[in-house]
Queue: 3 jobs
Job 1
Amino acid sequence: MSAVISVKNLTHRYNEGLPHCHVAVDNVSFDIEKGDFIGLIGHTGSGKSTLVQHLNGLMKPSEGDVLIDGKSIWESKKSVRAAKFKVGLCFQYPEYQLFEETVEKDIAYGPKNMKLKEEEIRRRVAIAASFVGLKPEHLMKSPFELSGGEKRRAAIAGVMAMQPEVLILDEPTAGLDPKGRDTVLNMIENFRKSTGCTVILVSHSMEDVAKAASKVLVMNKGKVAMYDETEKVFARAEELSEMGLNVPQVSKVFSILRQKGLPVSDGIFTVDKAVEDIARLMKGGKAK
Amino acid sequence: MDNAFIKFNNVTFSYTVDEETGQRIKPALKGISFEIPKGQFIAILGHNGSGKSTAAKMMNGLVIPDEGEVTVDGIPTSDEKRIIDIRKKVGMVFQNPDNQLVATIVEDDVAFGPENLGVEPAEIRKRVDDALKAVGMYEFKDREPHKLSGGQKQRVAIAGAIAMQTECIVMDEPTAMLDPRGREEVMKTIKMLRDELGVTVILITHYMDEAVKADRVLIINSGKAVADGTPREIFKDVELIKSLGLDVPQATELAYRLNKLGYKIDYSVLDEKECADAILRLAGVV
Amino acid sequence: MIKDITIGQYFPGNSFLHRMDARMKIVLTLALIVGIFLCRSLVSIAVVVAVTFALIFVSGVPLKMVLKSIKPLAIIVAFTAVLNIFYIRGGTTLFEWRFLHITSKGLFTAFFMVVRIICLVIISSLLTYTTTPTVMTDAIESLLSPLKIFKIPVHTLTMMMTLALRFIPVLVDEVDRITNAQKARGADFDSGGLKEKVKALVPIIVPLFVSSIKHAFELADAMECRCYVDGKGRTRMKKMKLSFKDFIALLVVAVIFAGIILCNIYFKKVV
C-alpha cells in the first residue's frame, strides 16, 4: 500500500514573530495509507484542527511539507488548488456553509469549482445525494427548508460530490441525536466502501471512533502521541486519560474486570467485541 | 403530587398553520401531561423533532400552549401579566453559548437579569459575585465572553440564572456544542445546583451518560410522554429506548446483550462500575 | 487584518484614567480635541503634545500599543501632509520648481495637521483603552438621556450598540470559518475581475446573513428569559458617580484649555 498523504516534519506557528507566538503543530511526521479509515482524536487545543487544515493546503506550514500522492502541495499555485479537490475537508457544523437556492445547486458548488462538465456535475450530485439519503424531492428544495439532520447530510454531500481521494470530516456527528449519529457514520462507511476513499474522522466521541475507524491517530500538545490500529490505541487507556481523553465505556468496564483478575482480552472497545469476549470466557468455564 | 412546581396539563401545540383551512397542523406536542416537583433533577430525552425543545420553551412562557395549560408554581404561563413572575422563577440556558451572553464583560452579563428586575445596585453586586463563585468563574469576572471556552461560557450563562435567584433552570441541550471537558464542567455545575442550591434542574440532552445522572428521566416521542421513571427503570427497557431512536449507555447495552444470550446477569446497570460488578458476579469471581 | 485594529479595544488597568467617570472622560476628551484644533502657535502645540504624552503615561497603557493605533492612519496622515505642503501658499517661499512651491506656511500647516491628527487619535484611543465598551455605552446612554424628551429611544439605541460590540468578535470568527469551508470546496477568492470577485463573496455573505438572523432570534429569546423589557424599571450594578478625581480632571483640562487660548494670544500664530 502506498501513502496517499505524507506529512513531513510539519510545524505550524500562529502569530509568528509576535510575543504571543504559539506552536500549534510541532514537527509532526506521518503517512496516511490509501483506503484507511482513520480516527483523529485529541482534546481541544491539541492541534488536531490546525493539522487537518494543512492536509488540503488550506493552511501553509511554518516548516515542513505535506505531500499528496508523493508530490508537495506547495509545488505551484495549481497544486495548492488541486489539493482542495484531492482532499475534501468537511468542517464542523457544515450546515452553516449552505448558501445556494436549491440543495442540488449547493451540492454542485464544489464540482462546479472543479470546472467539470455540466453532465458530470449532475451525475456526481446524484451519486452524492444518494450516499447521504437525500431524495430527488429534497434536491429541489431550498437548503434552509431542510431539517437539521438533513442539512448536515446535504452539506456532507457537497464535499462527497467532489469525489476526493481523501475525505476529512471534523466532528460530523456533533449535536445530532443518537439515531442521527448512526445515520451519518453509516453513510460515511458506505461511501468509503463503495468508492475506496481514504477517510479521516476527527471526533471527540471515542464510541464513534471505536465503531468506525481501523486506525487511530492521537494528537497531544501539537505532537502525534499515538498512531496505530484502533485496538492497540484503546488498550493504552491510562495514557489516553492522562492526555484528558476518554476511552469507550466498554473499555472502562474491561479494565475494571482485568484489575479484578478476570482474564478478559486486551483492546476491547466495542459492545459487539465485549459480548463475544465475555461469552468466550463463560464457555471456557468459570474464570478464576 | 401536591408539590408540583411545573405542571403540564394536556398540552398541545403546533408551529404550522394550514394555509387553506386556517387550522394548526403537524403538532409538536400532542396532549402531553406531566409534573415536575421542586428540587428534582430531571433529564428529558427524545430524538430531534420529538417536541422536547418545544416543551422546554413552554416552561417559562416563551411558547404558550394552543390547548391545555402549563403552570409554574401555580401560575399559568398564559397569564401575560405575571410572565415576569414566571421568568423570575424559571431560568433558561440554551444550546449555543454565544447566543445568550449579552454583555461584553462576564460580570456585566451575570448582572443583566437582576438589573432588568430592578434590584438595588449593591444587592446586584453581591448576587453577581456569589453566582460567579458558585459556578467557579469568579476569577474570570472581568474577561470578555468571546475569549472563554464553551464550557466556561455555559457556566457564565448558568451564573446569570443563579443571580436572578431562579428556583428552576431549564437547559436545552447545553452540552451539545461542547467538547468532553466542557461537558464535564456543565455536569458538575448541574450537580452543584441541585445539591447545594436546591435548584430544580430540567436537562434536555442527547447524551445518555448525562441522563443517567438525573433523578428522573422523561422520554418524549412525537409530542407525547412515552416513558417516565428513574434512569435505572428507563434504561432497563433497552428495546423501547432503541425503538425511540435513542441509545443506552454502553455498559447497560453490554449487560443487556449478555442477558439476551441466556446468561443470568442483572442488566439494570448504569455505569461501568455497576456493569463490571454484574459481570464479576456472573463469572462467580465475587 | 480585522483583528489588527486596536481602536475600540480595552486595556485592563487601574490607573487614574481607568477609574474616572466615563461620562466625564467623554466630555473632557471632546474638550481636548476642540483644544487641539484651536492651537495656532508653536508653544500651544507643544503644550498639546506634552499633555498627550502625559496622558499616555498616566493611563499605564504601553507606548507601543498606543503607537499601534496610529499605524493604520499613517498613509492618510502622510497624504494630508504632502497635500498641505504643496498646496498652501503664504509666508516666505522656501523652494520653487516649475509648478511646485513650498512655503513656510505650507510647512507649518502640514506639521500642525500631522501633530493634530496623531494627538487626536492617541487621546481618543486612550478613551477606549481605559473604558470598557459596556461602561462606554452606559456613559453614552447617560449623556444622551436628555434626548428622551424628544422621544428618541436612547436606551434601545445603546443596547443595540452593546450587542453589536458583543457580536463583532463572534461574527469575525464566523467569517473566518465560512471562508475556510468554502475554500475547502474550491472557492476562489483571488483570481478573476471585480465582477467575479464580488460574485465569489456570495457563498460567504449568504451563510453569514442566515447565521446572524439565527443569532438574533436566539438572543432575543435569551434576553426575554432574563426579563428584559426595553429598559423600563432597570437598575444598574455599576452606578456611575462623579467623584473628586473627576473634578480634578475637569480643572486640569480647563487650565490646559485656557493655556492654549492664552498661548494663541501671547505667542506668534504660525497657521
Job 2
Amino acid sequence: MPILEIRDLSLRFGGVTALAGLSMEVCHGELLALIGPNGAGKTSVLNCVSGLYRAQKGTIDLKGRDGASHALHRLAPHRIAALGVARTFQNIELFKHMTVLENLMLGRHVHMRGGVLSGGFYVGRQRRAEIEHRRAVEEIIDFMNLEPLRSAEVGNLAYGNQRLVEMGRALALDPLILLLDEPTAGMNAEEKESMARFILDVQEERGVTVVVIDHDIDVIMDISDRVVVLDFGRKIAEGAPDEVRNDPAVIDAYLGHAREERAAVGAGT
Amino acid sequence: MDIFLQLTVSGLSTGMIYALAAAGFVVIYKASDVINFAQGDLLLLGTYLVFFAVAQTGLPWSLGVLVTVLLAVAVALAIERLVLRPLIGEPIISMIMVTIGLSSILRAAVNAIWGPAPRSFESFLPAGDVALGPVVLSSGRLLSIPIALVVLAALWLFFRHTRDGIAMRAIADDQQAALSMGISIPRVFGIAWGLAAASAAIGGIMLAGIVGVSPNVTSIGLRVFPVVILGGLDSIRGAVIGGAIIGLLEVYTGGYVGHGLSLVVPYVVLVLVLMVRPYGLFGKEIIERV
C-alpha cells in the first residue's frame, strides 16, 4: 500500500529538464533506495516532495496519519513537514551556531504550540510540553549515541558527526517518512557502516518509511528493500536490489552506453 | 557632580530610545539577515503616530499608546506583506536595497500627511522635575529608562524562550533547514517586522515626549547604525548596551566638550568599532572555514 504516490512529475529549470514525467510509489514501512547517475534527478525528487521545488506538472500525494490523502504538490514546505515528511540534505544543512541539543529541539518545532504572546502566559502547560519534547529528544540522543556531543556547537563538529546530528534532527520530527539525501557521502568505511545500521534501525524499530539516495552501491544493496533507478528524470528500472543490479538498462545508464543511442533516436524522430 | 548625574540620566534615557529602535533592527537582522535601513524611519513614524492618536484624535494616553503601537505594527505588516514577502528567496541584497527605498517613502509619507513643521503636545511622561538632594532630574527622562528596559527585556525573553523566537534564530542560521523543520518563513518574517515596528513605536512615543515631534527625528533614527555596529548586529543585549554607551558618550561630549562634537561622536565610534571589532561587543563572530 503506497504511502507516497508520485504521478507524472515534470520539473524544468529554464531549458533543463530535471524530471520528465516521473511516476513512482513508496510503500508503507519500506526502505526504498533512489539511485541513478549524477544529474538523474534524484535530489529533485526529494526537493519536490518536501516542497522546496514546485513541479510544473504532476502530483505528489501523501497518505497522512489521519488516513487522508494530502496533495503535497500544492502545500508550502512547512505544512509538508507538519504532515510528517522529514529530510536531510546532500550538503548538510544544520543550525551551525546552535548546539546539538538545540538543533534537535528545533526538530520538535512542528509539535510545539503557542503564538507570540501565549508563549509567555500559559507557563504551566508550556512547561509540561517542554518536558515532553525534552524526553523525545533525549531518546534520540541515546539512540544515535550523541550524548558526548550534546552541548557542542554544531559548526565545530566533525563531518560524520554533523551527518548524524542532521539525521537525529529529522527524527525529532517524529516523521512518517524520512528522506535521506546521500547520508554516507564523505564518510569512511566504518562511519558508513554505522550510518547504514542507524538507517535500518530507524526503519525497523521506529517503523518509519525511508527513502534514501546514495552513491555507495554496496550500502544501498545491503539495506534497501526496493530500488528505483532514475536517469534523465525518468524511472528506468525498479525492483529488488538483485534484480536491478543485473538490469541491462541500469548497466547502460551507469556506463553511458545507452545515452548515445537515445540521442540518435531522438535526432531521428 | 550634579551636572554629571544630570548628563548621565539624560544620556541613558536617550540611549534607551536608541536601544528600542536598534532592538527592532536586530530582530529583523536576526530573522532574515536583512539590514533594515528604514528602522530609523519607523521611529519617526512612531512619534507622528502618537501625535496623531493623542493630540489630533484626542484619545486618552493609555489608549493612545496602544493605538500607536497597533498602527505601527499594521504599517510594518503591510510593508512585509506587500513589499518584502514577494522577495523571499531572492538575494538578500535586493531586500536591503528595498529597505533604503522604504526609508524614503516613509519619510515622504510622514511629510505629506503631517507637513514639515515641528509639532508639540503634552506628553504623558510627567513634565516636572525630581530633586534628588542638589541634583534636579527631568522626571520624564528618568521614567523612560525603566519603561524601555521592560520592553527590551520582553524582546530578549521572546528570542530565548518562545517557539517563534527560536524559529527566528533557526531561519537566520539556515533557511532550508528551517523550512524542512516545518518553520513558516512568511509567518516569522511578519512577526519580526511587527516586533521591530512595535519596539520603534514605543521608542517614538517616548521621543515625542522628550524632544517633540518633528522631521528631525530622522537624524536620531540614524543613530541606530552606530548602536548596532557597537553592540553587534544580532544581539538584543548588544543593542541595549550599545544604546546606553552611544547615548552617554553623546551627552557627555555635548556637556563637557561642545555640542558640535557630540553629533559626530557616534559615527567616530562606528568607524573605530568596524576597524577593531567588526562584529561588535556581543555579535556573533563569524568564522569562515575554507
Job 3
Amino acid sequence: MKPARRIALTAALAAVALTIFVAESQIPPVVPIPGVKLGLANIVTLVSMVVLGRREALAVLAVRLVLGSVFSGGFSGFMFSVAGGVFAYIVMAALVGLFPEKLLWVVSVFAALAHNLGQLLVALFVTGTPGIMYYMFILAASGVVTGVFTGIASMLLIRAVRRSGLSNR
Amino acid sequence: MVHKTKFWVILFSCVFLLGLGAFLLVRSLGGAGTVTARIWLHGEIIEEIDLSTVVTPREFDITTELGTNRVRVEHGSIAVVSADCPDQVCVRQGAISGGLVPIACVPHELVIDIISEDEA
C-alpha cells in the first residue's frame, strides 16, 4: 500500500472510530448494570489492526480517545475510555497473530473481557469501594456477548474494506 | 484444539453462564436479621443506616461537586430514586435489600451496599 493511501485510510478509520464512539455515548444504557455497554468503538481498533497493522490501530485508538473526551465525557469519562481502550488494544495486539482470521471473533471476545476488566479497575479506583468488584461476574458474561457481536461486526467490516479495494491499491 | 470454533463456542458459553449465575448468586446472598446499608462517597463510608429499624420511608439528597442523588430508605431496602447524571443506571438498578452487589453511581463516585448479619 502506498504511504499516502495508508495515512488516508488510517485517518478515515480514526474518523469512523470517533463517530461510533460519540454515537454510542448518546445511546441510553440498555441494561441497568453499571459498565454494561456494547463497546462498538473496539470494532474499529480491531479492523485497523487487521487491515493496516498494530501501529496504525494504536494511532486510531489514540485519536479516538483524545478527541472522544473532547466531544463527550470529560476527565472521568476519559479515564474509563483509556483503560478500556488500552486494555482491549493490548489483548488484540497480543492475540491477533495467533488466531486464523475465521476465529477473529475469539480475539474480540478476549478484547471485550479485557476492556471490561480495565473499566472495572478504574471504577474500583474512582469509587474506592471494594464491593464494586462483585460486578466482575456480570461484566464477564456481558463481555462474552458484546465481544462476539463486535467480533462478527469486525469480520464483516474487514471483508467489506478488502472488497472495496481501499486497502490494496 | 485452539483453532477449533467449537472449542471457543463451548468455552465462552461456559464463561457466560458461570458469570451470569455467579452474579445472580452474589446478588441474592446475605442472611436475614439486621440489614445495614452503607453509603460510600469517594471511597469513604459517610453514613450507615440500619434498615430494619426504618419505619416510615424517607428520602434525602446526597450532593457533591459531581452531582446529586436522591436516596430513598424504606423498611429493609434502599434505592436511588433520582440522579442528575445522564445515564440513570443507578436509578434503574432499583432498590436493594441484601446481597453483595452494591448500587453504583460511578460518575458521582457514590456506592451503596448492604451488610446483613444473622441474629444468633
